[in-house]
Design goal:
Layout (H helix, E strand, L loop, with lengths): L3 E10 L2 E10 L5 E6 L3 H6 L1 H12 L3 E6 L16 H15 L7 E6 L1 H12 L6 E5 L5 H18 L8 H6 L4 E3 L2 E3 L1 H9 L11 E7 L11 H12 L4 E7 L13 H15 L5
Helix pairs in contact: 2-9, 3-4, 5-7
Length: 279
Amino acid sequence: MSLRTLQARFEDFDGHRSVVLRWRPAARVRAQALFVPAFGDEMNQSRRMVRLAAEALAGRGVEGWVFDLHGTGDSSAGFADATVQRWLADCRTIAARVAADPAVPLVLVGCRLGVALAVQLSHDLARPVAALVGWAPVLQGRAQLSGLLRAAALARSQRPEAAEADPRALWAAGQAAMLGGYPVSSALAEELEAFDARRAPRTTRVTLIDVRVPVGDAPVTVSEALRKRAAEWSEAGTPTEVQAVAGAGFWNVADLVDVPALVDLTVNVVEAALVGTAA
């Protein structure tokens, strides 16, 4: 396996600065892989898995890039000002730097809501990406928001004495609502409700990977909703496969967990996508 180095530095984005991590192969760079992060705390929980995948890809000659979206992680902006459109602008900014050399293939690896962002990003780039890999995809912003609202409602039911306001009432009053530990503005909530990565990505191939907790000895299977979306994209002309790996939901567990099968599958998919490329 090739040696690799890690580079970290703050870079300028529109309206904020953010840390950008690069796992650089010691040998010739065969391709660039841009990791598009998950939403809120899911991004923090998934950092280790992203690192493991970036290291594994760098060992195969694929340079990995990781960044924090507006208002998240080490971004200099506040989350209260975050919107889906600002996140997409960040994706376009970093992708333009990653894909500066048109001779080097670009791969997008999205995690959770980051898969939907990666799908939209693929349409905003000057050239098609070599592959798009989606981890435990959340392809509708409404699904992300609904999960946060359910968790908030459960928390309110368990603490009736706290008299916490309903998030939708706060948004109607022009205030942010604390969801999952983050101040979600009415603007972000509205954009999440409308955000749907329905249009087939502009890429040579897509692999959507479901991460499922196994039940007994039964093999894990892909959700029907994901199968349906993959079929729609394939019919639209973008070859899309779906696979499932056994593992815990690393983006939402109390203790950090590894899913080695997800890393291995990601590396294999990227390797297959690079077969026959010029880089």
